[in-house]
Amino acid sequence: MAKTKTTKTELTESAKAVYDRLTPERESYITRAVSCASFTIPSLFPDESDNSSTDYETPMQSVGARGVNNLSAKLLLALLPPNSPFFKLSINAKTMAKLLEMGTEVKQKSEQALMQQEQQILKYIENRQIRVTVKEGLNQLIVAGNCLMYLPPKEGGAKLYRLNNYVVQRDALGRIIQIVACDNLSFATVPREVQTLIMSDGVQRKPEEVVIIYTHVYLDDTGNFKSYQEVEEHIIPGSEQSYPLEKTPWIPMRMVKIDGESYGRSYVEEYLGDLKTLDGLQEAILNYSAIASHILYLCNPNGITQAKRLAKASTGAFVSGRKQDIEILQLEKSHDMGIVKQTIDAIEARISFAFMLNSAVQRSGERVTAEEIRYVAGELEDVLGGTYSILSQELQLPLVRRLMVQLQAQGEIPDLPEGTVEPTITTGLEALGRGHDLNKLQMFKQAVADIPGAMEEMHLNAWLLMFATSLGIDTIGLFKTPEEKQQEQQQAQQAQMMQSVAPNIAKGAVDGLNQQQQQQAQGAEQSQQ
């Protein structure tokens, strides 16, 4: 076994050795994944010998492919809703108590700032096309049951590894011990320093020659994850990294969790029997249809009807002969094929229910209401039996934690003290993040309105800020500041004073004008006299 030395941590095995040692445990999962893909979408998980030019054999039915695409689309809608956050940044109890001591206004402003950070994370997900990678990962989970997502700290975005490109080892509780990811690159595409490291043995390499780079991620004694990259059992200089336990950019996902196993099971595997049976019966129906469409006429060799005259006769022509001499060849298997058709219909109904093909959940278009997203989440819980909740813990929560670290490192969101704010993923019927808070606020408002005099005890400003926060609205510049309120009050008081003084001023002016007119009239009379 090859030994590899590193300057930070002494490793007993090279990354390639760990990969080779853990590969046999993965083989049975790969075999099942290839089988599941062959009856749904073969290109999702090809065989090891396949390449980009492989012509995959198309399944005889399309129910499996439709089911995979439909189920992954619904999962994506529930896991990453397009119009609302799927998480909420919550302040821990100790910090919340300190904020309450400072006043409710400070608490409301803190929650408003956290809402703005939520919007920033969602914007990053959209701009870096992480949603596209998550959709690809959901397809892999449904067919293969496993996939690995990597969030590059420098480049941004996300990269997905299929099951045949990585190995993972978990403990008895399902926590990650180590991961080894494998990248196959051509020699011409690897960085210059890696090329120099590869050619250190003096052997010249062709540009198209495949170079395998292993990335080893392991849990060290301090409880943090460390990683390094290795090529031909040489550690690539500068590739060593260290990550906090719950904020690693490597996110291995499972569809169906099995205790004691490092890998998960796929959703298609649970219905593989029906898919295989449907594929075979559909092939039988197609073959029967092809044979039945081939029309043959049987002519009585001792009859008086001549086949050549019939073949040459035009429509409506009169040909001498006898009807009994000509007969159409029939298979006489329609009753048997009817039983096959009934069986196909029953299997399609079961598969359609399992993959939610018969449910109309959302309208066509990009705008989806909160009620539709809530309906999707509830239906996923009913059909998948808790699988959606597993994805919330193994995909949503690690994704949010890692994106918070990356955005804080880039300065796009403020760096918060460790442990003060933690993302909370709500699942099932509450899979709307702050949207669920809006429902509770509306219910509470209705209850308060039914109590006489209760509304007078509520602070209107706090209500407005809580409603805006639950709706995800940035209130900067929206509400009036205390200085603006005071200025408006002063202006209103001045206007009221002017209104009260104006009648007296007008009356005095009129009286003065009248007095002046009287004096002028008296002066005119005296001059005439």
List the helices and strands and how they pair.
Blueprint: H1 15-38, H2 63-79, E1 87-91, H3 93-102, H4 104-127, H5 130-143, E2 146-150, E3 159-161, E4 166-170, E5 176-186, H6 192-198, E6 210-219, E7 225-231, E8 234-235, E9 241-243, E10 250-254, H7 272-292, E11 297-299, H8 307-312, E12 326-328, H9 334-354, H10 370-384, H11 387-410, E13 421-425, H12 434-449, H13 460-471, H14 482-528
Antiparallel strand pairs: 1-13, 2-3, 2-10, 4-5, 5-6, 6-7, 7-8, 7-9, 11-12
Protein described:
With 529 residues, the protein is an alpha+beta fold. 49% of the residues lie in helices and 13% in strands. Strands 4, 5, 6, 7, 8 and 9 form a six-stranded antiparallel sheet that branches. Helix 7 (272-292) runs antiparallel to helix 9 and helix 12 packs antiparallel against helix 13 (460-471). The chain is extended, with a radius of gyration of 38 Å. Mean pLDDT is 82; it is low at 1-10 and 428-435.
